[in-house]
Amino acid sequence: MIKKLLEKNKMRLAPMAGVTNSPFREMCLLNNSGFVTTEEIDATSLVYNRSIRTKEISSFYAREKPIAMQLLGCDIKIMSEASIILQEMGADIIDINMGCPVPKITKKGKGSALMKDIFETSKLVRSMRNVTNIPLTAKIRSGWNEENENAVEFSKMLEDEGVDAITVHPRTRNQRYEGLSKWELIKKIVAEVKIPITGNGDIKSFNDAKAMLDFTRCNSVMIGRAAIGNPWIFNDNYQKLSDKDKLNKIIKDISNHIELMKDFFTPRNIDLQIKKQLAYYSKGFKNSKELRFKIFRSEEKIDNMIEYFFQNLRENFQTIERNLETTKI
After folding, report:
1. Which terminus, N or C, of the chain has the lesser number of Cβ atoms within 10 Å?
2. Catalytic residue flag (residue 74)
3. Is residue 38 part of a domain?
């Protein structure tokens, strides 16, 4: 199943906390992203607390399927129980977060901290594999730090424990998102394991994606930060449009995104969520800093701010086009 999904569309959206909620995932799917993944779902909260935030993160529409649901945690019992819950909720794939570098996560032994002890993590993976009958994947980094780049050995362990596919972000936990990612490492892992590998890191355009595919021979690529405010990065047909049609599509898509957010989020959160996305979409505006400031500080009704944003979008379209990375191969 995994290999066929990856072959169907070789570019897909990476999970990002606070960003890849259901409305944004749907926007990327509508612009030809491959199958999507939820934000990281804390296993402990899912099993015991089931907070409103956790319910929101783990929510998805049927039209998003097939969908991968990403689990964050380190306790074998809790992660296994959480895997069963996600399977019952309708997950098509369960992805283990082994790459998050954020200190508040890693100090609890979660995220990329799981790469520090291959033996202990193998027991976690084995337990999750034993209680699930859907594909199990993992997202990893190159290692904890430069002295412990163990991604190749770690990937072999994952394969041995029954993981169906791996996404590799070739930066260490210490690097976080600084410096260049080492695509050579992805290439090496592809050569060392038989399961599908997805590459991630420094993909800002269709051209970058093709370059990674050609160089590493990975099965697919994930795009994260470059997709924020730019779901069209997955859409190679976008660049074939005339300027007028591009502008019309952007307006139509953002309007659609706003309606999806209104349907998905609670009345208490909707205004903030819309403002966040408008700020992301303002990337490339010549007055983007001032625009974001006004969007977040204004006490006007949200519909007035939306209209103000679209007014700026029409005025800034040519500047935006020059600043957005090309998505044409």
Report:
1. C
2. no
3. yes
